[in-house]
Amino acid sequence: MSRTPKSRARRCDPGGLMRTSSPVLVGRGDQLGALRAAVPSQPAVIMIEGEAGVGKSRLVRELLDADLGPISVLMGHCQPVGEPFPYGAVLEALRDCTDRLARNHSRLSPVAGVLGSPLPELAEYLPPPLPPTGDPRADRHRLFRAMRELIGVLGPVLLVVEDLHWADDGSRQLLRFLMGDPPANLSIVVTYRREDVPGGVPLGSAYRPPTGITSALLELEPLDVAEVRALTSAILDGEAVSAEFAAKLHERTAGIPFVVEETLRALRNPAGAVHADGATARRLLDNVEVPVLLRDAIAERLAALPAAATRLVEAAAVLGAPASAELLGEVAEIGESRAALTHALTGHVLHEVGARRYGFRHALAQQAVYDTLSGPDRQELHRRAAEVLDRVEPRPLVQLAEHSERAGRTSEWLRYGEAAADRAVENGDAGTATALLQRLLLDPAVPAADVDRLAIKLGQIAHQGLDQLDPTEALERLLSDRRLSTAARGQVRHYRGVLLIRQAGGVEEARSELERAVADLTECPDLAARGEAVLGLSYLGMTPMSEVQPWLDRVSRTRAAETDLEQKMALYANEVGSKMHTGDPSVLAEWELRPASAPTSGALRQLARAHCNLADAMTTTGHFGRCADLLRDGLRLAAECGAPFTASTAHATRARLDWLTGDWDGLAGRASSLLDEYRDLFPLASELCLVLGSLAMARGEWAEATSYLTETGAFAPEESIAPVAIAGCAALARTMLAQDEITRACVDVDRGLAIVRTKGVWVWATELGPVAVATFLAAGRETDAETLIDEIAAGIEGRDAPMAFAALAWCRGLLAEARGQADTAMSLFREAADRYSALPAPYLTALVAEREAACLLPTDQEKAAEILSALVDTFDGLGATRDAARCRHQLRSIGGGKPSRRGRRGYGDELSPREQEVARLLVAGHTNRKIADVLFLSPRTVEQHAARVLRKLGVSSRAELQAEDLA
Fold first, then answer.
1. How many CB atoms sit inside 10 A of residue 299's CB?
2. I need a surface site. Which of 60, 347, 374, 692 has the fewest CB within 10 A?
3. Three-state DSSP class for 2?
4. If residue 190 lies in a helix (H) or strand (E), which one and from where to where?
5. Residue 621 and residue 806: Cα distance in Å, rounded?
6. Hey, CA dihedral for 889, 890, 891, 894, is it positive or negative?
7. Each residue of 28-70: pLDDT tens digit?
8. Spatial contact of 288 and 267, defined as CB atoms under 8 Å apart
9. What's phi and psi for 921, nearest 5 deg?
10. What's the CA gap between 204 and 188, in Å, rounded?
11. What is the pLDDT of residues 439-489, one digit of tens each?
12. Which residues are bridge partners to 188 per DSSP?
């Protein structure tokens, strides 16, 4: 049938129903571009190849939804029907071309008359039929010529034939004829699955496009993880999708778009599921039912196999991992496995996954076959799999544990499961180890005598890894498990408390659990001491330092008397970070006495922790140079001993250090990737949100900044990492102050100061102090500003905290400036700038220098303009768009001026730096007036920039702008 190209309409979501496909094409931009370029270059032949569900039809639909100009579309589909329908797909496409034929039928020769019988709809415009020649081959050739001639008089035409793998022989021969010498007005697009084409040759015999025509072969591959993530988000109307969920969904679906869509449809709450962490995503997707269409397709293919091949496929489904033909045959207990395997492969139920290893295309196909087995059959095949795999070297312990469990063999399940967990730990895979141990502990058949050992092992492993939520819940369940002995209960409680600290909303419960654990651990003094070391962490929640200090002092005394190196370093790792966070001046001298290495992996792990904990504290106090060195050494040590959680803390600290030291190039991307990976580790996630919020603030993207900064613990300080929450309050206040929201800025400042005053650690006011003083002065609260400065000065006296003293000078300069004491203010601002520069902290240095320029404006505009001009370059270099725009605005106000980055050269069709800034804010959804406020421009100027952005990017409205357009 013919089809008129139409404009795309975005599919709506009536009644809250989930859409079943993506409103945008994902991962096929290059192929769509090639298709759109080839079709108008007639004559053209385009072949689109790909497995079932990979998106061939969607690609064609995207082509047809575009404006094809004068080209008319003829559409035909090959069908998997039992009865032959000679030339069916092409005849279907031609039956609705009456209008075009009516205008041009006079150009047809008598040979076209043979089409009257197969195309009676067109008979009135066709010449009289010619008598048969009596030679079937000659009659067929005449028919083919007639078809070609008919198409040739229709004007510019696109013939689309879908699912060529189902075509009858006649249709293949006809298409080969047309594609071998296409009329000058014809473009042909065919789609097919090579694995389902008889003989693997789409047109029945080898085809090579003739010279002089446009041709293309587009091979569609499955989507990668990033594309699966984008597809999922698009289907759910832009819902954020966790990296863990996307990775698991890709693993389950092999990246085949149709299977992705059907899997999302099968989830009960896909919009909620896509936020899930790794363990939760795995549980949700492992338990999702096989989509009906996929299940039916697998059942149809199974039904076509001989009995031996079916048994082999069932064995593959039970094994669950690619296996050799010999292994499959042993599990299936069939004598000659080669013939059965050949049937399974040619039936496209099994695939060759690696060299001589066979399995399913994706996990859902395997599950579909597994679900067809009865319970007794499954159990028997798992028993056979365990027996066969037990003879493999090295033993696949995880698989042996899995098969033993499903075969109902508890003793083997316990033996293999624990051995597999131990091997996983040796290989640095804590996630696999904790998953196995949790499953063992959930099994009521596991004897009480084994529960203590497994529970303690679970806690020990979990607190070193990144998988936190599920082990915490498992440990909580164990506390009420009657099989757990009283002696082991304190240890389980300790490890649960440590894990709770790493989860959002877990700090207060963690302290309570740890205090109870310390009381219960009288027979385990080493573990009790480690619990005390956690309770002595200065930065947890809102517990005042007056209550933390006794725990810290106790740890110091215990460490001094300790002789075991690993235990000594475990206590020191917590102590050194806690003390440096408060600016304790004794820390660095004692640090020089630490061991440079350690003889055991356990001691090495604690040494790595000490490096990373101290580095993290130094981002608060301002020892940035030493911080970078410590992070480098800490990451090296963590890699040597296999300490993934310690490494994760170092990566988050590195992001924070990069923000402070001005290494912003690519920082937003790095921090976003880390946040995706560590979203369930609250201490890390909150710090990364602080970094991302601060970057957005510097760009003037207030909504994005606020969104991130509210996740720093600023609104729930009792469950926060206090220095991060305080810095979050500071950044929120600065965001409000920049928008002249003085009252709201005061609220944020007061909230942050309440944390500082409750904790009693004034070193943590380094970022809050200057914005608090500026806010108080803007609100007419000069007395509060003066009082705060005195509190900061008294609180940091004698502390080793370089950044705090820089902040104090900045605060004093702001107060002097407000009182009209320009010379004093400038002197203090220079002192602050010098201190910040020495750290180095270029962004903070530049903000202070801007205040110095403001003081100079009344008396020395030339000097002020010189400073402001340099600051424009500094802010531009950092990527602080809002700050650079503010300095340009100040320059213009005094008759100076500085062009945007890279001068005023012509940019042609590229976006200029200013247009890039406007485009980024347009994508964020800002109005012209809002953009004007952020960039200190007039709305009219923004309107002109916006128009150029849309023109250069080739979109008709700002609603069509996507972040990808700016990449």
1. 13
2. 374
3. strand
4. strand 186-192
5. 11
6. positive
7. 999 999 999 999 999 999 999 998 889 999 999 999 988 899 9
8. yes
9. -75, -30
10. 17
11. 999 999 899 989 999 999 999 998 877 665 578 888 999 999 999 998 899
12. 45, 159
